[in-house]
Sequence to fold (488 residues):
Amino acid sequence: MRNPMSTAREPHLPTTAEYDVVVIGAGPTGENVADRVVKAGLSAVVVEGERVGGECSYFACIPSKALLRPAAALAEARAVAGAREAATGSLDVPAVLARRDAFVSDLRDDGQAKWLKSAGIDLVRGWGRLVGERRVEVRADSGTTVLTARHAVVLCTGSSAVLPSVPGLAGIGAWTSREATTAGAAPSRLVVLGGGVVGCEMAAAWSALGSQVTMLVRGKGLLPSWEPFAAARVADGLRGEGIEIRTGVEVERVARENSTGMVTAHLTDGSTLESEEFLVATGRSPRTAGLGLETVGLAPGGRLPVDDSCRVTEVAAGWLYAAGDINQRSPLTHMGKYQARACAAAIAARAAGRRANPTPWAAWAATADHHAVPQVVFTRPEAAVVGLTEEQARRAGLPVRAVEYPIGDVAGASLLVDGYRGHAKLVVDEQRSVVVGCTLVGPGVGELIHAATVAIVGEVPLERLWHAVPAFPAMSEIWLRLLEQYGL
Ligand SMILES: Cc1cc2nc3c(=O)[nH]c(=O)nc-3n(C[C@H](O)[C@H](O)[C@H](O)COP(=O)(O)OP(=O)(O)OC[C@H]3O[C@@H](n4cnc5c(N)ncnc54)[C@H](O)[C@@H]3O)c2cc1C
Fold:
């Protein structure tokens, strides 16, 4: 896909301006902070150096799911006798890529910039950095401006891909998630370094679009922080689609051959691997470099410790906040937006003279970060998690009991997909009789996980959850089966 540095030029900037709240970064988190403080009656400006909408809209959640969905839809049709007979063709790759391009608005942010304006939020295009207490300098082609915040500066600059120190990596034009989500054609052979969520999803997407994919994973398997059964089923699914997964292996060096244009990776097991493209999906680090943290007494480029209202704890005067990927609490779009809502509520309350202590579950506390972070991996099968795995709960010293159930034995699942294969696990704190974790794997489970999130956040006693009757024949009957397994 072409990669326009979108964005219409802004008119000449004033040299100074004052707002109640200055937000750096117009990703999902920054947009939501600004929206909520404006709705609370404060004025806000957002500073954006690239595209309004951030990584999520153009290079992450949206394009990755747009690439994955057509193959999933086809597989769903083929999994049901009667429909299967009608779904005989193959994916129309150009149409898939065109649909992806439409979802990312051809990498143009005019629509989101228009939304900011309609929400009463000012936008200053350029790169922002702190230049002292409550002051942000923005450098843009059209000039330099200094924005002063009456109440708060909120850093929402997100994260960027980590490139491991593999000799040769800098010289091969390696893909990061940006290239993997925007590529205009499927490479003949693709190596994916890393077995986390991004690695799994991008391997699945490009394999379905025609690439021969090999995943290289340093550890024992994929998705290391997930329940082992979920990670194993995702791996089985990927293998079933023809993806090779090599575990326990690292890359010693890489080079792109001048003659063939192919990348050769030399692996620690002595073998070599050739590919047209080489995707690095080995994690992300917070974008704190160049933010002028040193001008307010913070270590440059480091991690920013925040409290539950996302206020940076090391800035005593309490005017600096950091929300979303930058604080690395729960680096997901929905959690960034949740932090944004909490953070904006805290700023508005404090601006009105209230202390707004971030006590658990207060409107200005992102408490769910500690207990209920839902995540879905959009592979085939899907996997979804919220809260703790059994091992994490035990390590935390909780007196837990786990129950499991094959989702395929639920009528709704077997009606959805012939021969449905899926599995569910519920982790229960026996002392409090509440759910603390849930993991599901199988077609369509991404839409089931919210029920578990509600149960965890609501700390709904199991005896009361028993009265939440799932509709028949829907997949949510899995809830009844899990509670029965528990002994209710
Ligand atoms: C391939 C991939 C797929 C993903 N899929 C999902 C998913 O399905 N669901 C999910 O919940 N999460 C997903 N994520 C994670 C999600 O993208 C991030 O959690 C989310 O984008 C974080 O939002 P943010 O607003 O904190 O940061 P970002 O979206 O990174 O936005 C930060 C913004 O700040 C701007 N900026 C940075 N520095 C400055 C500066 N100094 N001055 C001005 N502007 C600046 C950037 O240009 C950017 O626009 C995915 C990530 C990847 C890589």
In short: The pocket of flavin-adenine dinucleotide is lined by residues 24-30, 47-51, 54-56, 60-61, 64-65, 127-128, 156-159, 177, 181, 198, 287, 291, 324-325, 331-334, 336 (CB under 6 Å). Residues 333-351 form the longest helix (19 residues). Residues 161-282 form a domain with the FAD/NAD(P)-binding domain fold (CATH 3.50.50.60).
